[in-house]
Amino acid sequence: MDTLTKKTAKQTLIIACGALSHEILALIEMNQWNHLAVTCIPGHYHHRPALIPEAVRSKIQQNRARYQDIFVMYGDCGTGGVLDRVLEEEQVSRIEGPHCFSFFSGNDQYETWSEKEITTFYLTDFFCRHFETFVWQALGLDRRDDMVDFVFENYKKVVFLAQTEDSALQAKAMKIAKRLKLSYEYRFTGYGDMKSKMSSLPIRVSHANSSV
Q1: What whole-number distance in Å separates Cα of residue 207 and Cα of residue 95?
Q2: How do residues 133-156 score in pLDDT, each as one tens digit?
Q3: Which fold has domain 12-100+193-200?
């Protein structure tokens, strides 16, 4: 997915994981953050984290001259610190946290949970909405009847970290838990650290119009 908002006079570009595009665009619209634009790296890179750092670098270099600021909305996401090294070289910062589960719940809260919940499988709105593609098929659970037991044998529960209060998604999350043969828990997080970080991105005085 590569969605660059097509409005003029944007000042800050957010480079994000495609799995966050829906939430980022919703926050921009709800809060009328008209100084922000967003472009996304394909969501399926979630399963190939080695591709993420250079994909982000490419986006930075393609867009640096067009914006006053660039900000990256990615956790480390399995890159083993390589993404942060790329961002240091490019002099661009990102949201703090290892992955979206963390900054949706709040990094401090997630750290507390993760110490106690190593046998928990987390869902967000995105992963619940696109479970079939991004989890079931991506993990090969559709290939053999015994794959669920093999992949999830050490898990005990599904926790749905919900960004929106959507009854249809809640019902789907419960079905997912049943499908994975795990217990289920619902936690409403809202947009967590992502909302607060986006709200802090600066609005700068621009002396020249830029176009997207």
Answers
A1: 28
A2: 999 999 899 998 889 999 999 999
A3: Rossmann fold (3.40.50)
